[in-house]
Every structure is written in structure tokens, then in C-alpha cells.
Amino acid sequence: VKRRLEEKLKAARVNGVSFSHTQHTIVKLLLYNLWLVFQSKGESLQDKEASLEFPSRLHSLKDRDTVTRFDREQVGKGLPTAEEAFNFFTLNFDPDPPDVIETSSRRRQKQRKTTDEDEEHEDVDEDIQEENESEEAPLVQTQEDLFVIDQSPQDFLEIKKAEYVGYQKLLQRQSELLFTPSFRTPTSIKLPENMKPRYLEDEGLYVGERPPVSLTNENILENRILKMEEGKKWFGDDGRIIALPNPIKESSTRPPLFHMEEALDPALQTVYRKAVKSKYANLYIAGGADPEGDYQLDVDVSGLIFSHHPLFSREHVLGARLAQLYDQYLTRQRNNLTGHLTDKLNGLRNALRNMLESHSGLNPTQALQQRISEYNLEVRNTRHLRDSEQEKDRTLLKNIVKVWKAIKALREFQKFTNTPYKLYLRENVDRVSDEQDYEDEILAEVVELEAETEEEYQNKLAEYKKRLEEWKLCRKKQFQKAKKKKQKKKKKGQAQDDTEGEDEEQDVSESEGPTDEPPPKPEPPERPDLGSIEQWVREKTLRIRRKPGEAILIPELSASANITASELCPAETARREDVARRSLFTKILYNDKEVSRTDSRSLNTDFRVHFGQIFNLKIVNCPQSISLQVFEEIGSSCSLLAQVFLPVPEPSVVTGSVPLEEFEFSSNQRVMFDHEGVGSVPLSFEADGSNKQSLLTSGKVSCCVSWGIGDDDVPLAPPYIGASGLYDMKKIGEWARQSRLDPNDPKNASIMQLVASSGEVTAPEYFRLEHLQEEFNFVTDEELEKSGRFRLLKLRNQEVAEFRNYKFIPALEREVTDTVFQEYEKRLKEGEVIDTKEHLDSHRALVAKYLQKIRESVINRFLLAKHHYLLSDLVIEEEIPTIILGINLFKLAEPKRPLKPQRKERKKVTAQNLSDGDIKLLVNIIRAYDIPVRRLQSIQVRPFVEVSFQRTVLQTATADGPNPCWNEELQLPFAPNGDYSTASLQSVKDEVFINIFDEVVHETVMNDKNRGKSIQTHIEKRWLGSVKIPFSTIYSQSKIDGTFKVNTPAVLLGYSKEKSHFTNSGFDILRSLSEGTFITLFITVDPQLVPGESVREKFDTQEDERLLQASERFERDAAQRYPERPCITTVIDLSGKTVFITRYIRPLSPPKELLDEFPNNPLEATPLVARFVSLIPSLPDQVSFSATCDLWSTCDQFLTLLAGDEEEHAVLLCNYFLSMGKKAWLIIGTAIPEGPTAYVLTLEQNLYLIWNPSSGQFYGQYDTFCPLQAVGCLVNPDNVWFNIQQYTSPMRVSFDISKAHLWKPFFSRTFSHPGLSSIQPEELVYRRTDRAAAAELQDRIERILKEKIMEWRPRQPTRWNRYCTTTLKQFLPKLELIRGQDVAEGHRHELQSLLGDYRISGFPLNLAFSEIRPIIEAVYSTGIHSVQASNVEFALAVYVHPYPNNVMSVWIYLAS
Amino acid sequence: MAELHIIGQIIGASGFPEKTLFCKWGIHTGEAWRLLSGLKEGQTQVDSPQIGDIAYWSHPIDLHYATKGLQGWPKIHLEVWHQDSFGRCQLYGYGFLGEDFNEKEGGRETEKQSEILLTAARHLNSAQFTCSCVIQRIMQHVYRAVNIHTSI
């Protein structure tokens, strides 16, 4: 095929193929062709088809090498392998597609356009030649040349020749990229180095069947793991991946439940069983319940013997003791410890002797010596043991004889026999050998002892010698020292006084005395007396051993004596009858439950009871305890004598194979009888009653417990664990450790588990719903707590102030930095710590903290209230535009009137639709009136306005004259820290400063060189006055429109007012109020922001329900009739309670100092009081509480907080006026720029005066510049009047409240005043302000301001003119005195004269003191620091005037 | 540390004797789960459908949980109440939706609309509930052990 192809290829080359096609169509075809190619590749056309199709194409195909090769490959292989297909689609994808597209398109075209071949023949030839020249050269060039005529966007598509990569190369590249884990991994690399694989299976350990995994998969996994770090830990000792045994069971253990509907297999039918309660519910033996797993415990109670019983006679007591001793004797005899030890001793001695003999000639080696000494020690120990045993034997024998003698004596004494005991003593002697042995024994012992004593002596002697040596050495040293001392003494004696020398010597001797005390001379040890040893040995032997030749006594006890019949011993009758009356039985208790009892048997005279009964217990519970209770019956009453606990038998203990065992029991009951029975009391056998012995009822039960045997000789014992395992965990654990069970074998699983758990088998003292919860946790509580991200999320959710508006919380733990929390933690930690640095004043710092607290509590309450949504909060329905065709058409026809623009309703924007940069503050500065004019220069004042907000400064063009008109709109960007929620917008504290400056142009000639050629112009701006409007006002009003009085400094150096008009005033204080500069402004925010809505929450109250209802009705009526007029009857106090408004008004006396200033003229004092009130800093509620709620504080709270908004100021001022005997009302109305606010109205000599409480200014009723725009209602202590007149403007309103058709009273005849008590305090307490503190504050403000000004001038040096400063300082108090009212003409002159020929521009500022920040802001906004002149000097003077109660007036005099 | 977002809505209910219905809901989790943000219980508005039988609430649920263990997956309980013309409320049915609302391993998001059969005294009714869960991060060793293919 290949060859054929090549031939055809040649033919094709000769033919040359062309295609006539614009690039246009080519590209159009591209997609289709590409698809085709993929089809042919991916779907793999049939071999034949492919091979047929391709050659036929090749006929007409030109000599594109790539293509042919490409196709050849196709043909050669026919069907592409999966790998190839994969490569085709994935490998080198980037360069390939264009090639493929290109080639395929060509191919395609050739098929179709064979007819057009000749037409474009030449073109294509060229193309082909190009290609032949350089195969790698891109095709684009030529094509661009070719088809330059009809270019289309597709022409710029870069089309490249297919970059063919040879198959081998491809494979190579693949091998670099792909990981082929087809080969097995050798075991060696899977194991740690130098380790041989270990096959646990071969070692006989149980391994378990591994789950079937195909070898390929395993290899893949192994290779992958090997590539990993620490991959080797996944391999076991045998070099295979660690795997758990196959968990799949061969057959299903669960019965299949196929047919839900049909009747169940009867075997699977559930059977109802009544619940059985059992204490040992969890201790059931596995399979114990079913009939096959039948476990039987046989308890054989054969009988019992009393070793003491209250009915024993004395003889019985002795008899019992004799029997006991005899038993003891028999056991000792059986064990024969003495003989055993004697043999051992002999053996040791022989061995020692042998050793010594064999090595007698040689020098004993070290090892030998060691062994000999060991032997010696052993011999000694054994001898001691033997001696003590022998002694015991002898004592026992003696005791037996003694007791027997006592019995015999007793029998003789009482003349009858009660017990059948009889003791025989047999003698057995071999005299000669006995004596020989005896002597040998003594001799050997003596020799040994001698050797021991000798050794001991030698040791002691050695010790003595050593110590003697030491002692001597000591002596010697001491002697030498003494000598030296003497020499010293001699020398010193020559040089110094005798007395001194003596002293010294004494010192020396004293100091050395205690250390050099010679040790006592050791005593030499006494030589032991060898002769005494033999004697001692003999004595001892005599004591513990029978004498040589004495008979060896062997006691023999028999019960063959006759018991005297009852008739013969009348003393005994009562006791014997008593014995006969009694009977005994035993109960068998299994796991503390009685399971059966024996028959009652009467007590025999020999105090033995025989039961001989076997009980078969069929058990289901694990045996915990088996016990017998012995009961004694007298007549019908029975009493518990004792309880005997029996051990649970091993499973190997089967009935029939175990002997009876005797278990001792005893009871501690005291029993006494009046007959011969001894009772169970202390008893003495001596005549004088001494040597009492306590006798307790005791005895032995003979019984046996064993597992039963089934029919087929299978022991009916539970499996291994059930029996011995359960009652001794420790033993089992030990056994399991010792026997080295294979822990892998599932057969041993239960026991291994048991062993593992046997360490602590304490039952938990708690109950857990989710058991194994702790075990499956993958993170601890601490870690969860520590997580910064979670903490952040939680805090945000809780709306904690710092995080309330946190937008993006990092998704990863490491991206959460600790700095986020720093501020929050600081706040938590500092809580109570007052930072005086920030506030300059400790009192204000305290207030700030207090305010913070109130704020938090209020906020928390509002947060709750915020979550109460109304339907309108959730469902925002855009109003459907009324599509009334007629009107719209009419509108189209309406003539366009560009000169009469119609107001369009602005769209309100909700916070969530906003982003940074969207909000702009629009300030439209229209005009100003009465701007101060320059005093000296003939040139007119050239004022311009500069608006600064958030440190963005914009200015208008410069206008001319004192009444300029700018009519300019300034756009200031607004950035509320990325958060546009209502709450955050409300809490923006920034203010808009509108400053009026005068532009002064100095023309200075540069220097001599340039004289006449150039003139340098300095532009200097001088501050004339300012208006500041807080952003919160703009936000809540949404627009501010009006004429404002410009806050001009009292003294403007170099400027004077142009007195344009004079108003006559009959009254002294009613000077022309139009005096001053005014500016007309329009401020709004674009787009219009939705001001926050007030909180809809009912606050609790102490007001009368009737009053509340009335006030609600009153307000509702007012709102209905005059929706624009504010009407307030109830307000919320600081603690969040609703309070009726009149309660706030109460005459309160102003500070005494203020009244004292003008004792004669109370009218003079009025503005002073107003000024005092205005000096209290103003802080809007919205800012402080960040929510739209109006909280009213009482006057004392207000004075303590020293912050409040207009209402508080107005209330305080009103109260002051009332106390001064004026007629005063509170006006609730709207004003610019504050919006809804409160003013104070006073009636003075038939003239109504309106006071602005925040500025201390007052206006006549007919003053055009009065900021009050509308009057809503009037409040005094007795009543509230609502304005029901046609107009609201104060100018057009009659303030005569007595007229009911003008003012609607709240309390009227129908609803009289209930006598509401005021919530204001009786009297306000004023504190004198500390002048020293004020002075200190003054210094600090000055220092800070100076630093700040220097800071704002980073480029130029800032020089301070001290002389000027001191001069200015003197003026400030004067200014305060005249309250800045009067621009003293003299002042300027004075200054001028003082300062000589300085060119000065400057002004004093007056501020109410609250914090340092606003002061700095104010100074910054004047722009005094921006003076560029090279030789400028500054002067700054600060004066703080203290008013009572820490109200401070701050004066700052700035000049440059 | 793993996080779970439960985002969904209570769509509505149908098949109750009356149509004026509202729903109380709550989410219960095991001890290992900590609520990071969102409300875990609430009440829908009363819907009184004019047309059709289904009372639609479309009540959003948006919770964010963190967990230290895998047990105690959140369960949601729903109570459907009827409010009559006098404003009296009466419980019509209730139901529990167990952990299966976050079944389907492997998927980063599982979305499921499930109908819960609410047990009522006389009727079998249903409330619809959609929920999608986003399992955000399960610690690495859990990956290893369980081999969940959860991508972050």
C-alpha cells in the first residue's frame, strides 16, 4: 500500500493540482472540513473505505508532504488506535488545528473544484513552489500576497502548515509527558533500604484474604504512591500495599426480604416476646439463650462440718482444736519440709566440700572464690530455714500432746466423754545411728559457724586497719599545720603588736578548730570466742530437736472413743437436746439470686451435717458469683449463719472429674447459752478466767462446682471467654501476652479486643447521644475556635461593629491575618481603660466611653428591630409606568421647551446597587453676600469658594466684589469605606467644609537681573470664612438648599465689613442680624440615596395608656392634615423608653457665674446663656447611634455627656430661659441645614425671638435670614400646640397660641393635663471648671496644632514668630469677653501698632471643644498652611476659656 | 475543618385541606456543627393563593456551617400551619428531611428538589423544598481516608 501511495504521490506531483478559490470560501469551508476530519479520525472510518478514499484523493492531490505523510499513516494503519486518537486531540493541539484545517480544506476543494483547476493554475503553482522550497515556511506570506485583493477579516487568520512529528518522536515526547505504569515495581524499592521482604503468611501468621484488585491497578497505585513523599509508609513488610482483609462475606448473612407485600417466610416472621428486664442484660453469654447453647453448672453440696458451734461443750472445743492441730500435723508431715531442707543442706555441704578438695592445691580463681562464697551463703540460709522448720515441728507436736492431755483431764473431771477423739502416740527409734547423726550434725554446724565468725572477724579487722590509717594521716596533717602556725606567729609577732598577733592566732585556731578535729581512734575488733560457739549450737539443738535417743513420737488421732450416753450425764442433757432441735440447710445463690436450696438436715451430735445434694443450674448469664448461704433452723425460725463464696470453675472443670473441696466459713454472731454449750463468746479454759480465747461459729462446707456434661459427653461450659475470661481479665491478658496469640487472626479478635480493653473497663459516667463522636472528629474544638476565618464569619454575622460591614472574608485560613482582629481585641481589652491622649481631657474621655456603651446597647436593640421586615422591605415592586397611549402621544406632540426644563423625579438608589465611585456629592455654589472687603488695597476683593470633603478639595472660579455670583457646580467623590449600607452611611462623620477665600495677587519683581523683563506673580489665598455641613445632614435631608450665614472670624486682619445697610433696632440686643456674610448653596448627593427609615419598634414606656393613645391620635391627625409639618408629642429617652415631650421642659437655672456677670441687666445675660449652650458640642444622634432614631437626653445627661444634637440644646436653652422668667417655648420645626430640628422661641417685649440653640444666635420673627424654615409645633411644660395655620414660615406665622384656630392644643378641655411630672432633675449641679486643666489643655492644643501645621508643610520650613504669637495670645481673652461679637476696630490698630511693619493676614477661630480632631480639621480647612511665600512666618495662639461644667470655648488665633 | 453552605428555598405546599398556609422551619445538627452565619430557624409568610392549589412561600434559606466531625449532618424540619380567617393557627403537618438532601458524593454542589410527605392527621400532603449544598473544604486527611473528589 505504501509503495502504491508513493507512486501515486509522484503522479500527483507531476500533475500539479490547483484550486481556484478565494480565501473567503476557504474559510467558510474550514469548519465543515474540520468537522469532517474529526469525524474520519475519531469515528474511524472503515479500513477499506479509508484506503479507497484516500488514494482516490491522492490522485488529484498535490505534493504536500505533510498531507501525504499524514494520509499515508492513516492508510498504513487503517484505524487509528485509541492512543493516536488521544494524541491527535490533545498533544500539540495549539499548532495543529490550523494545519489540519488548511490541508483538509485544500483536499476538500480539490475534490470539488477539479473543474476550476486550470483557471487558477499558475497561482497555485507559485504557491506550491514556495512550499517546496521551504517546507517549514509559513503559508501566510504567500497567501497574503495572493489574496490581497479581496481581503476579509478572516484573511488575517494565521494559517500554518501542519507540523508533523514523527511517530517515534511522538512516542518519545509522550513518554516524557505521560506516566505509563504498566511495569511492575520491584519489591526492593518499596521497602526501606537493606530490608528483605517478610512474608507474614510464611511465618504462620494469619494474614487474611486481600480484596481482589487487578494487577494493573495495583501497579498504577504503587507507582503513584512511590512518587509521593513518604510514600513508603503505605507498603507493608512484604512489599505490598497495606490492605485490610476483604470485608466481603461469601454468603449474605442477612435473610433476603424480597416480597414486601406477600406473606413472609414463616421462619422470618417476627415473633413477639415480652421485654425482659435484667441486670445482667449485657452479660449474656453469646448463644446462651438458644436451646443448643445450653450451659449447665452443677453445684454439689455434700455437707458441712462445724469447727466451732455455739452448742459445743468444752470438750468439743478442745476436741476441735485437737483435730485441727492433728490436721496441721498431717499436712506438715505430708509436705515434710524439714526432711527436704535437711537433704538440701547435706547436698550443699557435699558440693562445697568437693569444690574445696578439687581446688585445694591451686590458687582459687576469682570465679571460684565467688562460687564458694555463694555456696557458703546458701548453706547458711538453708540451715536457718531448716532450724526454724524443725522448731515448728517440735512445737506442734508439743501442742498436740498438751491438748490431748487437757482433754483427758477434762474427761476425767466431768466424768463423761462427749467427743470420740482418741490420740495414740507411737514410738520409733534407732538409737545408735541417731546418736551418730546428731553428733555429726552438731560438728558440721560448729565448723561452719566458726568459719563464718572468722570471716566476719577478718572483715572487721580490715575495716579497722583502714580507719586507723586514716586517723594517722589526719593526725599528721594536724601536726604539720600546728607547726606552720607557730612559724607564722613568730613572724607576725615581730612585725606587729603582740595583742594583734594573739588575736589573729585565736582567729586562726578558731577557724581551723572544727575542721581539724582528729577522728576518734578506732577500736580494734574483739576476737570472737570460738569455744562459746559450740555451746551455743548445742543449746539450740537441744531446744529445737529431740534429744538423741529420745523416741520419735508419731501421733495418731482416731474417733474411736465412746461417747457417754445422755442418761449418764445429766449436766449434758440440756445441751444435747438443744443440738437435736437444730437443723441446717443451705441456699445456693447464683449472681446474687437464690436459685435453689438444700433440704433441711438436723445437726448431729458430732456437729456434722450431710446434704449430699447436687443442683444442676442451667444458666444464661455469665457467672459472676456463686455462693452458698448456711441457715440454721430452730423450730420454725431460721437464721443465717454464714455465707460462703465459691469460685466459678474453669470450663475444663467438669462434673465427675473434680473432688469435693472444703470451703471455710465463719460468722461473727455472739451466742450464749445457760447450759453446757459454750456459745460463741470469748471463753477461758483456765480456772482463773485468764487466757481467754474468742470462739466464733465457724466451719467448713464441703462442696464442689463444676460444669455439667451433656448427653454426648460434651461439657456444657460456655466458650472460653464466657468462663474464666470474665472473672479475671488480668489473667487473660497475661495469658494472651504469654501465649503470643496471633493478633491478626479473626478467631482471636474477640480475645484481643478483650485484652486491649481490659486495661480500663470503667463504665462511662455520662450519656452521649452521638457515640463515637469524639473518635471521629477530625479537628478539635480548640482548633475550631482558633480558626480566624470562622471567627470572622461569626463576628460578621453577629454584626459586631468592627465587622458589620466586612465584605469579603478570605476563603483560606492562611489569608486571614491577625491584624483584622487587633482593633476588636483591643477594644475588648481596653473596655474600661481611658485613653487621655486621644481626648486631651479625662472627663471627655469618660464621656466618650459612656457614650460608646449607650451606643452599643442602643445598636443591639435596633439590630433586633431591624430584622422585623415588612412586605415592602422584601418585595420591591417597581411601579408600572402608566401607559396611556393618549397622553404619550400628546407628549410627543408637545413642543420642546429647552428654556423651561421640567423637573424630573430622581430615582432613589438602594445601597446594594452602589459601588465605589458611584456616589458624588454635588455642591452648587450660587452666590454670596457681604463678603468682607479689603481694607487697604484699592483692588476689590476677589473671593472664591473652596469645598473640601474627605480631604478632597475643589474650588470655584474667582469672582469679583463683595457680592459675587459663581453659579458653579462642584462634584466631590464620596467614599464611605466601601460600604453603602444605610447604617454605615449614617455613621459617616465627615463634614463638608465650604470656605470662602480671597485671592490676593502680589506682583513681585524677581531680582536685579531680570528687572523689567519679567514679573513674578504670587497668588495668595486668604481665608474669609466658612460654612460646615455634616454629611449626615445631607444624607438625611437628601438635599440642602438655602442661604447660610458664613462663619466669619471675629477679626479679619486686613478686611472690614462693608456696611451696606443698617437696620434700626429699638432694642439693644436686636442689632442688625443681617450683619455678616451669607452664601447661597445647593447641596445634594447623586444618585439620591435612600435615607434610613426610622425603626418601627414599640418601646416600653411608663406613660399612661390613655395619654399614649391620645398622642398617637394627635400625631396621626397632624400628619394627615399637614404631612410636611413635624409634630412630636412623644420622644425616646436614653434608656429607650417612650416619654411624653412636655416632661422635658422644666425651668432650670443656668450656671450662677453666667448670671453674675450682669447682675443688673438680666437681658444682657441672655446671650451669654445662649452662648454657653451653644458651646456644648453638637453630635447628631444618627452619628452617635448609627441608626435613625432620635434619642432625647435630659439636661443633666446632656451636660454630663457634653454632646447632643439640636433637641438637647434647645431643651436646655428653653429651660434656662424659663428659669430666667422669660416666656419660652420649644419650636419643633425644620430649618436649614439641620432639617427637622428644635429651636427656642421667646417672647421679649411683644417681640418673638427665635433662638438657634446650636449656634447661640437669635433672630427676630421677621428676619429673612433666619434658618428656621417651618414651624411645626410649640412645646412648653404644660402643653403642645400644633400649627394649623396656612403657612409654616415663621415670618407668616402668628405665635399667639391662645387662638385655637391657629394652634391646636394637645391638652384641651376634653382631655385635660394629667399633671405630668418632669423627668428633668430638680436642679442642675454645675462643677467649676478647673482653670489649671484648661491651661494645660491650651498648651496641648497649641503643641499639637503646631506639629500638625509643620506636618502639612513637608517641603518648606515652618518658622514661628514668637513675638507675634505672644501678642496674639493677649487678644484672645478679650475676644472671649466680648464673645466675638464685636469686631473691635481698635484691635486691629492695636495689633498693627504692636507688630509694626509685618504684613499680616490672620484670624481667630472659635470652637466648642469636644475633641482634638475637629479642631485640626477646622485649622486644616482654612488652608493657612498652604502659604507658599518663601519668607512666611506663622503665629499661632490658643486660648481655652473654661465655662462651668467643663464646657470649654477654644480660641485659636492663626496668622501668617 | 469542613464547611457547609446550605442554600435553598422552601417553595410551597399543596394538598392541605385549606390553602391559607404558612410554614415554620428549623435546621438541626449534631454537636459537631457550628453555625457560622445565617438563621437556622424561621417562619414564612402566610400565603393564601387565589389561583391554584399551591401556597407559594419561596422562603430563602442560607446557612453556613463549620463542622469538626462528619456525624450529625443537618436535618431540616418543616411544619405547615394553617391560619384561618380569625387569625388562629393550626398545625396541619410536619416532616423531617434527613441527610439525604446533601447526598451525592463527589459533586461540589448537589441540588435537589424534594418533596416531603408531611404526616398530617388525615391527609398526606407535601411541601416542596429545594436545597443545594456546597461542601467547601474537608480537611486533607479526610480526602485521603474517604477519597472524596471535592475540589476547592
Automatic annotation (TrEMBL), chain A:
Pfam families documented for this protein: CC2D2AN-C2, CEP76_C, CEPT76_peptidase, DUF5523
One cellular component term from this protein's GO annotations in UniProt: ciliary transition zone
Biased composition (Basic residues): 484-493
InterPro entries, sorted: C2_dom, C2_domain_sf, CC2D2AN-C2, CEP76_C, CEPT76/DRC7_peptidase-like_dom, DUF5523, Tectonic-like_complex_comp
Stretches with biased composition (Basic and acidic residues): 518-529
Keywords per UniProt: Coiled coil
SUPFAM superfamilies: C2 domain (Calcium/lipid-binding domain, CaLB)
Transmembrane spans: none
Acidic residues bias (residue ranges): 116-136, 497-515
Domain C2: 903-1044
Keyword rRNA-binding applies: no
UniProt protein name: Coiled-coil and C2 domain containing 2A
Organism: Neolamprologus brichardi
From TrEMBL, chain B:
The keyword Zinc-finger appears for this protein: no
Any one Gene Ontology BP term: establishment or maintenance of cell polarity
Coiled coil: none
Pfam families: B9-C2
One cellular-component annotation, GO: MKS complex
Organism superkingdom: Eukaryota
Listed PROSITE patterns: C2_B9
Family according to the record: Belongs to the B9D family.
Protein's name in the database: B9 domain-containing protein 2
Protein species of origin: Neolamprologus brichardi (Fairy cichlid)
